[in-house]
Amino acid sequence: MTAVTALENTDLSARTAGARSAVHPRSVARPLLYGALVLCALLTLLPFLWVISGSLRSLDEIRSDPGAWLPQHVTLDNFVRLFRTEGFGRFMVNSVVVAAIVVIGNIVAASAAGYALAKLDFAGKRLAFGAVMAAMMVPFTAVFVPQFVITVDMGLADTLAGIALPSVAMPMSVFIMRQYASSIPDELLEAARIDGAGEFRIFFRIFLPLAGPAVATITIMSFLASWNFFIWPLIVAQSTDTYTLPVGLAATSQAAAHVTDYGLMLAGAIVVMLPVLVLFLFLQRYFVQGISGTGMR
């Protein structure tokens, strides 16, 4: 009896030791993973912290010590000069108009394209989806020349519509919406068709409300693309009346004798970043859901 009890205790001790050895690597790996993620986050934030510090320094101080992380004398003069810059309000309005056109266009056009590719049967469906995938792989530098020629031929050069039109239905937005639409049950849409609802009514009344996370995702991505895009507005906008905020700030930050006013430029960078950060904070939860939902099928 004593031998049996000793054998059972030995077996229990062995299993406990095995369980501890199995848990131990996991308990060590998790803090290491979190530490690596925190380190990556800090490295990512370093440029933003330097931009914030530089925007609070005078131009003379920036030139005397460009690599300093903390300002010796905090000043808001750069922001005051920025908002007093001639044309700043017009640049801001132009960027808002272009961003609104791009965001609304992607919500409607890209969502409709994604819905059609996922839920409708038509000739050339696979070919159309392949074209969307191919368009995602083509860099902007390979298409901006023919894109500019088409814009000029349409009479949209030096207009806000010409700046916004090429981004109204981005391939990435179509892809995200198509993938998310594939996760919505077909039975729900078929029930609406049986009740006599048309495709437009199904799209606006049933599909779009269900695709809220995907809509939030393409809203953030399209707004970010249109708000921060520099090369295309610089090519199309040929007068200060159609400059967007990044182009206008780049033009106005050039002081006399082609010397860059870095304080004004860094303050402008902060102003450009703020709307994107605010939008992301409001839609962050839906953005994560939309990205994760694209891989459900």
From TrEMBL:
GO annotation, cellular component aspect: plasma membrane
- Report the CDD domains cross-referenced here: TM_PBP2
Q: Which GO terms describe its biological process?
A: transmembrane transport
* UniProt xrefs under InterPro entries: MetI-like, MetI-like_sf
UniProt xrefs under PROSITE patterns = ABC_TM1
- Give me the segments passing through the membrane: 32-52, 91-115, 127-148, 160-181, 202-224, 262-283
What's one Pfam family here? Answer: BPD_transp_1
Q: Among its keywords, does the record have RNA-binding?
A: no
Q: Please state where this protein is localized.
A: Cell membrane
Going by the UniProt record, its keywords in alphabetical order are: Cell membrane, Membrane, Transmembrane, Transmembrane helix, Transport
Question: Topology in the membrane?
Answer: Multi-pass membrane protein
The ABC transmembrane type-1 domain covers: 92-283
* Superkingdom of origin: Bacteria
Q: Which PANTHER family match?
A: ABC TRANSPORTER PERMEASE PROTEIN MG189-RELATED, ABC TRANSPORTER PERMEASE PROTEIN MG189-RELATED-RELATED
Protein family: Belongs to the binding-protein-dependent transport system permease family.
Name by which UniProt lists this protein: Carbohydrate ABC transporter permease
